[in-house]
Structures are given as C-alpha cells and as structure tokens.
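Hi team,

Filling in the usual template for the complex we talked about on Friday. All components are listed, including any nucleic acid strands or ligand strings, so the model treats them as one assembly.

SUBMITTER: L.P.
PURPOSE: interface mapping
COMPONENTS: two
RESIDUES: 819
SEQUENCES:
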Amino acid sequence: MRKILNFNNIKLSEKKLIAPYILDTAVNLEFAGYNDQQIKKEFGFSNVFELSYFIHQYRLCPKPFLVKSNKWQDKFLASDSIRLKIFEWFYFGLANSLLALVIFFTLWFTESGHILKPIEGLIIVLLSHIFASSWARILIVKFSFYNDRPIAGYGEKTINQYYLRGLFGIITAGIILFFLFSRDNIFTLVFIDISLFWLNIGYFVAFRQLPIYLITLGSILFLGSIYDPFVLFGVFNGVMIFYIWLKYLINLAREPFSVYSNSFSNNSLNLFSLFFFAINYGFLLLIDVIVLFFYGQFDTYDIFIHQYLAHKYFGIFPLLLSAGLIEAFGVYFFSKIIRLERVIKESTVMFNEIIKNYIQTISIFSMLHFGVTILVSFIIPLSNGYFKEVYISSTIGVMFLLLSLFNLNILHYLGWRKDLWFGIVSLFVGYVYGSLMFYNVAAYAVVYGFLMAGIVFFVTTMALLLKKALRYSYLVYLTSVLPKL
Amino acid sequence: MIDVVSCKPSLFDLRQFLVILSLFLYPLSFETEFKTDIFHSSVASSFGLLGVINKIIYGKPFVLSEHGVYLREQYYFIKQSRVLTKFLKKFLRLLIYRFVILNYNFADKIIPVCLFNKRWEQYLGAKDDKLQVIYNGINDSSEFEFLKQEYVKEKTSFNDIILVGAFYPFKDIETAIRAVAIVKKQVPNIRLYIFGPIKDKDYFSYCLRLIKNLSLKNNVIYRGVVKDLQNYFKVGGVFLSTSVSEGFPYSILEAMLYKQAIVSTSAGGIPELLGDCGLYVEMKNPNSVAKACLKLLHNQSLRIELGWRAHQRAVERFSLSRMLKSYEYLYNSL
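RESULT (copied from the run log):
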C-alpha cells in the first residue's frame, strides 16, 4: 500500500521541486537527490516518473503561470513567506491592540454616562471598518497562496478605490442623515456601521451585484429616515443574507467541490470565509432585534441603547474575529483533507488524519471562541446580569450554530443531500424545545431557543457525520482489503 | 506537452530563437553521406539528425549511445539558466524534447550506459527491443605497475580521502567539505584531496568560502587536473563521491580499479557500478558521509577488503575488452 504523500511533511513544494510539467518535476526530484529507492521508501511509488505523474494527475502542482504584477505589495508577498508571516503577525497585533482600545474607550464612555459624540462615533466606525476590511484582506491574501506561490494581487487593484468610494459616500450620507433627522441618536451611526460592513462583504461576495447593493442601501437609507431603524436593520440584513445565500448556493451548484479546493480561478473560497463572517454578524443582529422586540424597549431605547448596543456591537468584534478563525480553520482543514483524499484514496490512514484534524480544528476554535465570549462577558461592566446572560447564551448559541454549519459542510463534502433534512428538522426541534423551557420569559425563550437549536443542531450533525465517517472508513477498509482477497 | 503558444515572445526572444534554431540545425551543414557502414551518435541531440538522414536516404543503421540522459540534463540546465527568458526556456525545452524523441524513434539501437539511464529512455518512449545496456569499461591491462601494488602498512597514511570531480553543483563538493569538518573532530589531521576542473566559478568560490569559514584550509586540498592521479591512490585508501547526479562515472570505476575503499551516494548508475563493494551514504547529508568515512578510517581491514572487492568487480565486470566485445557484437548484428 502506498504511504502517505503528505506534502506538509516532505515539503516538496517548499523545495520548489514541483514544476508545471511532469518531466520537469521528475528532473527536479532526481537532481534534488531523490532516487527510485528513496521515492519508494518515502512515498511508496516505484520511481520518480510515477510520483511526478501522480502529482500532476491530481493537480497538486501550481498552474504553469503566475499573474504578473509590478505592485510592491505583490512583490512583497511573493518574495518571502517568512516576511509575510511577520507582516501578518504585526498587522494582527496592531489591529487587535487598537480594537481593544476602541472597546475600552466605548465602555468608558458608556459607563460614565456620556453619550458618544458624532465625531467619536465616526472614529469608532472608521476604525472598526479598517479592522474588518484588513481582516478580510489578510484572509484573502493568506488563502490565495497555494504551494507557496501567491496568486498575486487578488482584489488589490480594485478594493481600495471601490471600497473607499463606497465608504466615504455612505459616511457622507450618514452624516447628513444624522444632522437632519436624528441628531442625538447613536443608532444612525451603528446603522451606518452595519451598512458599511455589508457593503464590504458585498464587494467580496458579488462584485457584479454591487449596484444592486447600492440601490438597496440607498433606498433603505431613505426609508431609515422615516421608519423605525430596527425594522430596517432586519430588512437590510435579511436582503443581504438572501443575496449571499443565493450566491453561495449558485456557486455550490456550479462547482460543488470547489468550495474548499483552494483553487486558483474562483473566489468561492473567499466567499466561504466571508459567508461565515456574515452569518455570524447576521445572527447576532437578528437575535438583538428579536430580544429587543420581546423586551419591549423600543420606546425607551435612548437609555437602553448605550447600555446594550454599545456593549453588544463593540463586544461583537472579538466574536467576529473568532468567527474569522473558524473560517481559517475550516479552510485549513478542508484543504488538508482534500489533499489527503486525492492522494491516498486507498489508505485507511486518511481517516485517522481526518478525525485528528477535525478534533484539532474544533477544539482550537471552541477554546478561542469560549475564551473570547467569557472575556467579553467579564469586561462588560453591567450591573444588570440579565444582559450578561443574554449575551453569553446568544453567543454560545451562535457558536454551536457555526460549528453545525461546519459539520454540515463536511456532510456536504461526503454527500449530504438526505442528511440535510435531518439537520434542519433538528434545528427547529431544538429551537422549539429551548423556547418551551423558558416560555414565560419572552427574551429568555428566544435566546435559549437559539442556544438549544444550536446545540441540538450541532449534536445531530455530529452524529450524522460520525455515521458517514464510519461508513466511509468501512469502504476505505474494503477497498484496501479487496485487492488482496 | 509544453505550451509555447501561450507565452508571448519579445523581439529579443525571436532573435534568440532564430540563433538557437540555427545552432541546433548546424549539423545539417555537414556532408551527410559518410563512408561508414554504421552511424553512431553518442548523444541524443541535434547531431542525431545526421544519423536520421543517413538512415532514411542511405539506409545505414543508426546507433545511439547515451552516457548521461541528454533531455534530463538539458532540462536541468535550462531551469538553472538566468540568461534565458521564459519564452526561450519553453521553446528550448520543446525543441530538445522533439530532437530526443526523433533520435529515439529512428535509432536502430539505443545504448544506455546503465540501467538508470534506461529508465529515462523507456519513459520517453524508446522501445524495449531497441534498448541494450552496455556498461563502460576500463583498461585493466597488467602492464600498469600500480595494479600489482599491495597494501604497505608502514608507508601509507590513512588520514587521506580522495575526491575526483569537477567543481560543479552536481558533484556536491559542499557536502564533502562539511563532512570533513565533522570528521576533523575525531581525526584532526584528516585531509581531503579534490581533483578535477572548475566548471562553475561561483560554486568554486562558494566552496572556498566554506573551507575558510569552517577553518579547513589545512584539511581540504585542491589539486586541480593532474596527469598522475594514480600516484595519489594507495591501496585501501578512502575514495569519496558525493554526487547527486551521475550516469556511469569513470572516476569511481578508476577508483575501483585502484583498490580504493569507496564511500558514495547512490546517484544514477553508481549502485550498478559499485554493487556491494563500497559504503553508500545519503545524498546531501554531511553526517552520513562523515560517519561512513570515520568507519573506514578507523577500520583498516574493512578498507582493504572493500578495496580488493571493488578491484575484483571492476576487472570482472567492467573491463575495456568486455565493453569492446559488446560493441563489436552489436555492430555486427546490425
């Protein structure tokens, strides 16, 4: 049986031995000191030609071209991966420090009883957007790498101009609206913040649909000056989620297996990352709206706002970061699995690798997410434990929902069609069960409904996944045993 | 196959393209009809064109022997080249590939010098019935006095290691130098004699810097190209080869004939040549090389045993007379 051709361990690609053509790869391997005996020992192939052929057959090599770019960023990214890592760590560190400052700044204001001034609010909005966009950009750059070769300058050319144009346009509109209609209402700022966030996502997800987003945004901005902002939040986010789902599903239908393939041409990978990002934000907003609706604070939200929303929305960013982490882990997980799956179809070792990776991914994510949630709940100086409870329950509920989505994606990868319905049914059952537990307190019913839905959904998908995995491992076992019988 | 069309050439590329093409077609400027019965090309390059023409027009048999695999080596050179543009690299690769296939298709017999080369030729489409391995041979005439030399205990210093090979990245002399630095810790007066031309000046200067940095000025001695190489060989001496790419190397064959205890990598056809008459080391691994060298330096009887076995193998299997007979038989069979 062939041994694992684990590219992470042997680092053929790091040694730059994988060339665009089979013959070149064979030449590179031999001149790097790999002879047939060594190839057989390390990879289980009889000679260099077989290994080279295999590498190319399963497209483990880069495409024979790279996008040429004279931009310094591309050169920088292409030049050295160690420098890139340092850059990333520095950037992340800086962004996180600033983020912490923003959170504490906001908390100080809210605790001391001040209402944020427009300019302060705008600064927070701008900073938060820089973080959000930089995070997205780093994600895109990071996962555009393949075999140590960058797909140079993805989105670099257009992101600045379009994003900044949109950003400044909407901020101007927001300021006008702010002064014209709701001078002392922080909600307008938060509203602008959310809109910008969606615009940012809209850019990445469906660039061609940007005009539609702008029209929607404009109409909502107009309506926002007339109607209740809560309703508009719901409508706007609903529309955006719909668009993203639509795009996501279309992509799935077109290229069902390319979502995690880390491939070159499509942007489904980025879509996948941002999809989670968006869903996370969307869920939390939805929960807020529902909680507020049941809590009946619409009339008194002047007092309520900077107690609840400031904490919620500025406490949300660590959560968003952790949502970004699950995307990263998800992509890492699937890229590794795909390589393993493609390379060693006959090996039972693959299944162990899958399980190991899955456990690692989930445990790291859970630790980070729980850590962030608990940390945020501690730093929120709320005298009212009610909000804290709502916050923790809702975020944990969201975490489970995210994990369930992660499971669902694995199920999809393994052939999920029938099992999807079990998942959805479990979601509703969990929600109803959670709601019934606290039916006498409306807000609790909603939050615990979500929590239970998340947990049940997670447990169900996990069970389905295990079932699939067991069946799959049995098949793997059979295929490895049958030729010997 | 290689996609040249998608790569847009510049004017410079086109000019160079014509120059390269004219060089490749240079053999066509020769007289095509030779007053010989057989056309034998020693490389599957454009010179094989003459053989192809002779075969098609005059019906003369065409024999092709390959000491190294032409395509494999040229591909490596092209990859390493800093002068060639992307288009020219692609074009050259395609051109070489076509010439090699042309040679293989028209040759009546293809003679790789070792099984290692045969693999490549098979992979590139040469038919099995055309392929015949004829190993290189060396003159084992008893007129050479050194062959009668026996081990002389008192006069021979066994702190010397000999390496015969050009200063060239393929020979991986860097690993040998690093291995000496490791051996020096146990054998302070170790000496590595390097013989051979300087084919790559950059590599040579790099090795010199390495020698300086590792303080091995007294331990690594470069003698260049010498005519009396056999005088440096002592029976049971240690001979080192750290090559990462080889065909069927004459340097090792000579060392075998001179009763050397050989430490070598298993690159190319070396295992076919050396068999079990030497110690094998990992490629590009100074520790492995040092370990093997120390083993031999500390074990006199092993050195002598390996030296004699190697000599016997060289005389029995790779004699010049044997090689000539094989070629004679081959020519007569055509």
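MY TAKE: Residues 221 and 287 of chain B are 20 Å apart (CA to CA). The two ends of chain B are 34 Å apart (CA to CA).

Thanks, L.
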